[in-house]
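Q: What residues go here?
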């Protein structure tokens, strides 16, 4: 009788252990901030992004700039999907082939997926392209991109321009990487000719401006937005 009871107890323990190990565990629902930021984060999470916009989105790093692989006679467009809609960029491969090629290279490696707009200033710019979200990150290399010839306005509304960290006025600064900005107003249009405008928004400018509405009011280096919007994906079409 004792043996039978012992066997029965062991059987119950084994069955119970197997049940605990093999039962389906429902994934925890991420805790999101209240209000509009929580709604934006939910959209980003559904697209495969981290729960928090403060989380680094990738660790991709390249030792040298990419070789020129695009055709300077072909037409390239980039569809940028964000948490509030999409906009389309026509890439300027003729005048800025190195800069446009760099953007295509990073986009096809999904470098921009889930990256936040870390610097947004109203009527000035929407800036993104840093996987760390700090404004100090990049692809692991820097490259030279020529500045545009003098014009008025220097950077028309919707210009897509590489940000660089070189001192103002330097000729062909070798400090471009992955960060770029989109001109959203007069203050951006009148920026000095220090930056390479490798593209132009051709549709979806309302999306760009919606992101801009969450920007700060001052044109400072930080430009911390009131809401963190994210790039969900970038699709290149030739």
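A:
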């Amino acid at each position: 009788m004792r043996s039978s009871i012992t066997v029965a107890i062991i059987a119950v323990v084994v069955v119970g252990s197997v049940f605990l190990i093999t039962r389906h565990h429902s994934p925890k629902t991420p805790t999101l901030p209240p209000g509009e930021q929580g709604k934006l984060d939910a959209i980003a999470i559904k697209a495969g992004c981290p729960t928090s916009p403060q989380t680094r989105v990738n660790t991709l790093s390249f030792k040298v700039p990419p070789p020129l692989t695009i055709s300077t006679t072909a037409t390239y467009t980039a569809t940028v999907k964000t948490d509030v809609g999409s906009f389309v960029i026509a890439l300027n491969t003729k005048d800025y082939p190195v800069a446009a090629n760099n953007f295509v290279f990073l986009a096809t490696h999904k470098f921009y997926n889930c990256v936040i707009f870390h610097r947004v200033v109203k009527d000035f710019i929407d800036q993104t392209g840093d996987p760390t979200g700090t404004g100090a990150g990049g692809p692991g290399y820097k490259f030279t991109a020529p500045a545009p010839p003098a014009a008025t306005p220097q950077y028309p509304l919707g210009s897509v321009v590489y940000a660089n960290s070189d001192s103002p006025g330097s000729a062909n600064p070798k400090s471009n990487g992955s960060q770029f900005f989109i001109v959203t107003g007069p203050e951006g249009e009148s920026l000095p000719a220090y930056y390479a405008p490798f593209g132009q928004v051709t549709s979806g400018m309302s999306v760009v401006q919606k992101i801009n509405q969450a920007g700060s009011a001052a044109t400072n280096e930080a430009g911390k937005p009131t809401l963190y919007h994210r790039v969900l994906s970038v699709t290149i079409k030739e």
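A: Context that may help when evaluating the design: The radius of gyration is 24 Å. Helices lie at 2-22, 35-46, 97-108, 186-189, 205-212.
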